Amino acid sequence: DKHKTGVYALLTGHTKEVNAVKFYTLPFSYGGSRHFLLTGSADRTIRVWRRQDNKSNSTSPGMTSIARPTFTHVTTLHGHESSINCIAVARGSELFVSGAADGTVRVWRLKDVKGENGAAANMIIDCQLVQTITLKPRFFALALAMRTLGGQKEKEKEYEKNIEAAPPLVLAVGGTRTTIQLYVMQGGVEDVQEEPRQFELKASLTGHEAWVRSLAFTDMDVERTQSQAQSQLQDFFLASASQDKYIRLWHVHAGDDVAAVRAKVDEDGMVLGGSLEQALSNKAHEFKAGGSKYSVTFEALLFGHEDWIYTVAWNSDLKNPKLLSASADNSLVIWESDPVSGVWYAAARMGEISAQKGSTTATGSIGGFWMGLWSPRGDTVVSLGRTGAWRLWKYEGETDLWSQDIGLTGHVRAVNGIEWEPTSGGYLLSTSSDQTTRLHARWERGGDSDDGSCYSWHEFSRPQIHGYDLNCIASLGPWRFVSGADEKLLRVFNQTKAIANLLENLTGFTGGAKPADMPEAANIPVLGLSNKAADDDINADVANEGEGDDSQSTPTAAAPLTPHASALHLPQPPLEDHLSKYTLWPEHEKLYGHGYEISALATSHDATLIATACKASSLDHAVIRLYDAAATTWHEIRPPLAAHSLTITCLRFSADDEHLLSVGRDRQWAVWRRDDKESGDGKRGVFKLLCANPRGHARMILSASWAPILDSSRPRVFATAGRDKTVKLWMQEKGQDQEESFICKASVSFSNPVTAIDFLPVVVGGGQLYLAVGLDTGQISIHAFAIEGLGEVGEAMALPELECPSKAVYAAGVGGRSTGKGNKWMAGMSSPWRVRIVLCGFSGL
């Protein structure tokens, strides 16, 4: 995508992790789309999605109109008894296969359904289970590869002429054993009166010494004999990748003669680094299919990876086949065959060369590549790693080099908290169970849209890479934030000059005057746990250390690498290499006091107070602790605030910082009022309980939010959301005894538990409040309420299903900058594995 817009749709339906995805094209259709997407999941089902091509998609201002296909669910296949691991398809065949952890491979036939008028029936697909292969000796299939035998283009033309004809197929199965099994299905016309065609085991390929993780067939451009040319037969390769760190190539030859081994042996009897006896087992496995004879022989052993190899993939160039491999050693390798000698060699290597084996992401390591893919034209490769980043490399013909370009980044586990930059919404912070905090901002640049501008959202910094799952985050102005994790303390971080300059140059965010003591950069010391500030001149000091000393230096531990601020002088958003190494924020302070994991966190709008809570099952720990962020000592303001009996799930300061709202698992909400004057000792941030409702909801309360204040004379309003599937709006009132309390004025029911809510921080049109609501099922909607009486105004605006997550929305944050027209606000919604930013329009702003 040249516009770098990233994810544009989410397909929801599976109830557990999706383990396999595969695009598939039917060889024949009655006029409907022939293009499908097959997805296999740990929920033991396969879902079939049909592609629909659209002329154009509605886009936001600054975004060029792009025609993007959509996929609609048409059927769900059941049959496997355990998690589905892999799916394989073959061009020119209506069959596809799936492998699962139940020890079976299942073969499915997908057919288009003819409608009454002869055209394709409306989104109806006929899918039948053709065969169940029980793998013997028993093992789990982790990799499948399937293709037609013979010339594929010729077979496709033959199939179009006679849709009842089917080409012969070869299926390779690998998994939790060291062997690769080859199955063959004979071609021909299916006769309903006879037994249906079945896959039969024809060969077992040996050689690997560990589990087989990936298999891939390709076409191979070879010199054909006259008889081969007449029969339209064609040779091809099978590549297999294993946890033994090796790739094996197998030559499938069509014809009566057996293909000769092309691997070259050097003077020492070595074949590509392995001994001839161990590396080459050149037994020819022969079988017949479609009236022709085939043989499978070992072709080459490729080595160079230093860890498990997860995937192999061939490019689409038949005349110059290249193989892409992705490994846990943090590298991608492109393999080519020398046209003269026939020896396969590593033509390009991308990724990371790490001197520290077993490095984690906390030290800047990418943690291995899980997947490698070619683009259709073969000039781009992408990889997916454990940090959640899709890395992208493009081939430059002028330099004959592969250069890294902007990819996609994101969290890999549940996103538990988000926070907009408070002064102007210049960026969005998110924190996750993947133990990272990330900063997202909008990259603005010239483009070809209607208004001459273009923008896209990217990750600009990874301030915190932690050793605990992160639960919550809150901002302390444009240059500082505090986060809480599955530990008993909180950590405060300061932004660096390098990140501030990067945001200013690429996003236009300035944030006002920068602090005089802003550090240049940050790093994690060797054997250290906390980010430390590091200036550019430290390297020079280390280099000059010991000059003038005639004595021999004593060997010491290597000094930690200090990232330079110059590494972030970039014309575009940082790449994954920059994010994982050069964008940390130094840790400024630790806040102690809680006895269990941090569960909730909030900061006052003037950035002087921090309110925190931890997981609790007793009154002693279900307290709110306040910290003075304006003091240099960061001391706790005692005593802690006690009202709840179980874990506090959400804390919120009112817009004027005069009230603090807390809700918890005990179904109770409590409102605290600031009472600094009565403290008598000049302390800031003294709060006293104003009122509480021990039965605010029928079940636990999960989220809360204060409504914006139109003027100081109006009563305060807040909303609460609970697992009882309701959102309640509460308004401040005074009773006959002049005691203040909050009365429920409105209640909105939903079909599922409500997990996150947040008010738009301004009143719209002089009298409307807008509330964003996220449900346990991932549905997101925006509701309008009249400020007078809190009655709901109009119908709720629901986000399209393609833009909603598949699981619970854990946090909601409405804010951000307007788009220049004055009526746009961005709403950030966090959910498992993703942060969704939605552009909303509100008339009357």
UniProtKB/TrEMBL annotation:
<dbReference type="GO" id="GO:0033588">
    <property type="term" value="C:elongator holoenzyme complex"/>
</dbReference>
<comment type="pathway">
    <text>tRNA modification; 5-methoxycarbonylmethyl-2-thiouridine-tRNA biosynthesis.</text>
</comment>
<dbReference type="GO" id="GO:0005737">
    <property type="term" value="C:cytoplasm"/>
</dbReference>
<dbReference type="Pfam" id="PF00400">
    <property type="entry name" value="WD40"/>
</dbReference>
<dbReference type="GO" id="GO:0005634">
    <property type="term" value="C:nucleus"/>
</dbReference>
<keyword id="KW-0677">Repeat</keyword>
<dbReference type="InterPro" id="IPR036322">
    <property type="entry name" value="WD40_repeat_dom_sf"/>
</dbReference>
<keyword id="KW-0853">WD repeat</keyword>
<feature type="repeat" description="WD">
    <location>
        <begin position="641"/>
        <end position="672"/>
    </location>
</feature>
<feature type="repeat" description="WD">
    <location>
        <begin position="77"/>
        <end position="111"/>
    </location>
</feature>
<feature type="repeat" description="WD">
    <location>
        <begin position="11"/>
        <end position="59"/>
    </location>
</feature>
<keyword id="KW-0963">Cytoplasm</keyword>
<feature type="repeat" description="WD">
    <location>
        <begin position="302"/>
        <end position="336"/>
    </location>
</feature>
<protein>
    <recommendedName>
        <fullName>Elongator complex protein 2</fullName>
    </recommendedName>
</protein>
<keyword id="KW-0539">Nucleus</keyword>
<dbReference type="InterPro" id="IPR001680">
    <property type="entry name" value="WD40_rpt"/>
</dbReference>
<feature type="repeat" description="WD">
    <location>
        <begin position="237"/>
        <end position="260"/>
    </location>
</feature>
<dbReference type="InterPro" id="IPR020472">
    <property type="entry name" value="WD40_PAC1"/>
</dbReference>
<dbReference type="GO" id="GO:0002098">
    <property type="term" value="P:tRNA wobble uridine modification"/>
</dbReference>
<comment type="similarity">
    <text>Belongs to the WD repeat ELP2 family.</text>
</comment>
<keyword id="KW-0819">tRNA processing</keyword>
<dbReference type="InterPro" id="IPR015943">
    <property type="entry name" value="WD40/YVTN_repeat-like_dom_sf"/>
</dbReference>
<dbReference type="InterPro" id="IPR037289">
    <property type="entry name" value="Elp2"/>
</dbReference>
